[in-house]
Amino acid sequence: MGETVSLGEVQETLLIPLYGRAHDAQRRNSILRDTKAIELVAAIDYDFTKFRGPTLSGAVLRASIFDEYIRGFLAEHPDGTVVDLGCGLSTRFDRLDNGRLRWFDLDLPDTMALRRKFFSDSDRYTMINGSILENDWYEQVREGGKPVFLVSEAVLLYFPADTVHRTLEQLATGFPGSRLAIDTGGKAMMKSQDRNPVFRRVPARMQWICDDPGTLAKCGLRLLESRDFASPQPSVGRLWPRRYRVGSKVMRVVLPPPVTTYKLNLFEAVADDERPSRNR
Ligand SMILES: C[S@@+](CC[C@H](N)C(=O)[O-])C[C@H]1O[C@@H](n2cnc3c(N)ncnc32)[C@H](O)[C@@H]1O
């Protein structure tokens, strides 16, 4: 009998990318090689097979793009601090650890209780029970005064726009000069949720519609890079099996909006007094 899960509706969605990574790890030409995800899926008592479907690989492609953003930061700041907000059962620390960085994984208490059954803190790795919406964890991750990279993957999409905007402004103010990687989804993607063969298997629904990540300048975020799955992926694309590279090229021509309005974005947090205007 495996580990049973008792998670809130949004928290349960962490099992989708986990299954995606486990599925990917079983392939000969795996992108992330997340063999720990295979172990976790085997250890958790849950019907993962309901998530089988063509869109499952999206979570793996997304993770690989966010990995690339963080690798870029670590190349400049090998002693930097990385904070994964809404980490779920991600194994990104193991993938990106360079032996010098400081890493914090943060998630809600029920998710963290599950996570702690499989992961342990170490000298450079700390798990925090907390919420991306609150700021009570800021001091802990700022300790040491190193440059900070904040990543939050498939989390903010679940909140209403005003909550997301308030949270992003709070993060930008709390971590001026830091990098932030988040995903955004446009109207077409949000409207297609019930038709998504993987996503329709869970009760949670995404709420935040953002068709233009550049508009997040109003929250104090300068857009550095924004990609979708159809964008050329000069570096990380080399890790992708041929079928995804070809699929990406086809999308560039056909442009199905539910896919191409889903963006993987990299921002820089702008200090409060350097923001162009505080008018909304
Ligand atoms: C789709 S899962 C993504 C998990 C992980 N980022 C990944 O890609 O594997 C959504 C995650 O958001 C977390 N979450 C939901 N509300 C949150 C909050 N207020 N603060 C932090 N994490 C939250 C859930 O517990 C869950 O782990």
Q: Main traits of this protein?
A:
globular, 9 strands, two-stranded parallel ribbon, Rossmann fold, seven-stranded mixed sheet, binds S-adenosylmethionine, 11 helices, alpha/beta, 280 residues
Summarize the structure.
The chain has 11 helices and 9 strands. The chain has 280 residues and is an alpha/beta fold.
Measured as a percent range, the helix fraction is: 25-40%
At the first level of CATH, the class is Alpha Beta
Largest sheet: 7 strands, mixed
Ligands bound to this protein structure: S-adenosylmethionine
Q: Shape, please?
A: globular
> What's the arrangement of strands in the largest beta sheet?
5-4-3-6-7-9-8
Structural class computed from helices and strand pairing: alpha/beta
CATH topology tier name: Rossmann fold
Low-confidence stretches: none
Question: What topology does this entry show?
Answer:
Elements: E1 3-4, H1 9-12, H2 15-25, H3 35-43, E2 44-45, H4 57-76, E3 81-85, H5 92-96, E4 102-107, H6 109-115, E5 125-129, H7 138-142, E6 148-152, H8 161-174, E7 179-185, H9 187-191, E8 221-227, H10 242-254, H11 257-260, E9 262-269
Parallel strand pairs: 1-2, 3-4, 3-6, 4-5, 6-7
Antiparallel strand pairs: 7-9, 8-9
Helix pairs in contact: 2-3, 2-4
How would you describe this protein?
The chain has 280 residues and is of the alpha/beta class. It has a single domain (61-274), classed as Rossmann fold (3-Layer(aba) Sandwich). The protein contains eleven helices and nine strands. It has helices spanning 9-12, 15-25, 35-43, 57-76, 92-96, 109-115, 138-142, 161-174, 187-191, 242-254, 257-260; strands spanning 3-4, 44-45, 81-85, 102-107, 125-129, 148-152, 179-185, 221-227, 262-269. The strands form two sheets. It has a seven-stranded mixed beta sheet with strand order 5-4-3-6-7-9-8. Helix 2 packs across helix 3 and helix 2 crosses helix 4 (57-76). The chain is globular, with a radius of gyration of 18 Å. The termini are far apart. The model has no long low-confidence stretch (mean pLDDT 91). The protein binds S-adenosylmethionine. The site of S-adenosylmethionine has 19 residues, from helix 1.
